[in-house]
Design brief:
The complex is a heterodimer of chains A (about 140) and B (about 260). Chain A is mainly α and about 140 residues long. Chain A is built from six helices and no strands. Chain B has one domain. The longest helix of chain B is centred in the first third of the chain and has 18 residues. The chains are: A mainly alpha (about 140), B mainly beta (about 260). At the A-B interface, helix 1, helix 2 and helix 5 of A face helix 1, strand 1 and strand 13 of B.
């Protein structure tokens, strides 16, 4: 704010001065890059329509979290995933501290994200987090 | 002109100081931290134990069931990429067969390559009164005592019970076993192989491990019924108990 005010003041008072060329540069130096991502999330996240859709395309794929011997003993295919995630003691879902949910932590992990092919885009991760924050219902 | 330049210099100086990031106060520097959690699966061989009493097969093809499986983990250390270590002070975990998620604690951000911990307790921890302090409350569990009351002389740190096929032909001669492993002398260090991971500020990073209870029988003579029970601190000094203790590190592996 201070930087902006100074720049405006100087632009007005020294309009004819060639030094004015420096001020936009200085102003840029003061400005922090804004990387605000706006996600359009539903008011109520649906497990079957929203979360399971992510699983179907990103997780329950051949050789991963599907089939009779799924990776990590976690089958995320339709009809199996909710029971697996809700298994007592598994830690996949933590509705008290949603960010501690293994499901979220693993998607959000910087060093070993799931899926291993690369971190999901932020909006998908936010969608899952919102579902967890909404008590992770099987809706 | 000179006045203008002077005025300009003053303004730029003010401007510059406003833009400068505040210099950190070296006397009050806070190391950024993230959180480490363990995600621990209870397995027999390649099979996760979903229910007690269910028959699974060990990696060497022997049928086995679990009726009870708990162990204590303490003295957790993270090994940084440069080889130095960070100790998670005082943290003790009681791994039960069906609980998988354990928050270890906050650790400095950075790159790490491995984790080390002890299954069991050092002498000081073994001498703790289980209800004296918050730090020892986790010991207040009579399933992990040698006696009916807490004894300040060593806790059971590995309690595993079930049945195992003892036949040489692996034909399903299921015999009960019950191992209560403890004492300071038997506490065993486990170091996982190198597998890089990063701790990011304010993020929770899980380390995924499998605990394979089928491994405790490596080198145990199953055709001797005397080898099926370890119940007292005295039992814990036998060759059979020491064999079981030596198998503890191989019980742990990363989840692939």
């Amino acid at each position: 704010m201070l930087c902006k005010s100074l720049a405006i003041f100087l632009q007005c008072s020294a309009m004819k001065n060639k030094w004015i060329l420096f001020f936009p540069v200085l102003l840029l130096a003061c400005t922090k890059p804004q990387q605000q991502i706006t996600c359009s999330l539903p008011v109520t996240v649906s497990y079957s329509n929203d979360v399971q859709t992510i699983f179907n395309t990103q997780c329950a794929t051949s050789g991963c979290h599907t089939g009779s011997s799924p990776t990590g003993n976690l089958n995320l295919s339709t009809g199996n995933s909710y029971a697996q995630l809700s298994k007592k003691g598994s830690g996949y879902i933590d509705t008290i501290t949603p960010t501690n949910s293994l499901l979220y932590a693993q998607m959000n992990s910087s060093s070993s994200p799931m899926p291993p092919s690369g971190k999901l885009d932020d909006c998908k991760i936010q969608l899952v987090l919102k579902w967890l924050q909404q008590k992770a219902r099987n809706n | 002109m000179k006045t203008k330049i002077f005025f300009l210099a003053i303004i730029v100086a003010v401007f510059y100081s406003a833009c400068k990031k505040p210099t950190p106060d070296n006397t009050n520097t806070v190391t950024p931290t993230g959180t480490i959690g363990f995600h621990l699966h209870t397995n027999i061989g390649n099979n996760e134990v979903d229910s007690l009493g269910e028959v699974y097969t060990t990696l060497d093809g022997r049928m086995m069931t679990l009726a009870f499986a708990q162990l204590f983990i303490s003295e957790i250390e993270l090994i940084k990429s440069d080889g130095t270590t960070y100790s998670v002070s005082g943290k003790k975990l009681l791994k039960t067969y069906d609980e998988e998620e354990y928050i270890v604690g906050d650790v400095p951000v950075g790159n790490y390559k491995s984790v080390r911990f002890k299954v069991g307790f050092n002498a000081a921890d073994n001498a703790l009164n289980p209800t004296a302090t918050a730090d020892s409350a986790i010991l207040n569990n009579d399933q992990m005592w040698f006696e009916k009351t807490a004894q300040p002389d060593g806790y059971v740190f590995l309690n595993v019970q079930g049945t195992i096929d003892t036949s040489t032909t692996k034909s399903g001669n299921m015999i009960s076993f019950s191992y209560q492993i403890g004492t300071t002398a038997n506490a065993t260090e486990v170091t996982l192989p190198n597998q890089n991971f990063s701790v990011i500020e304010k993020q929770l990073q899980y380390i995924h491990m499998i605990i394979d209870y089928g491994k405790i029988f490596q080198g145990v003579k199953l055709n001797d019924v005397n080898n099926m029970t370890v119940a007292t601190p005295t039992d814990n000094t036998t060759a059979n108990a020491l064999q079981i203790v030596s198998n503890i590190p191989s019980m742990f592996r990363y989840e692939e």
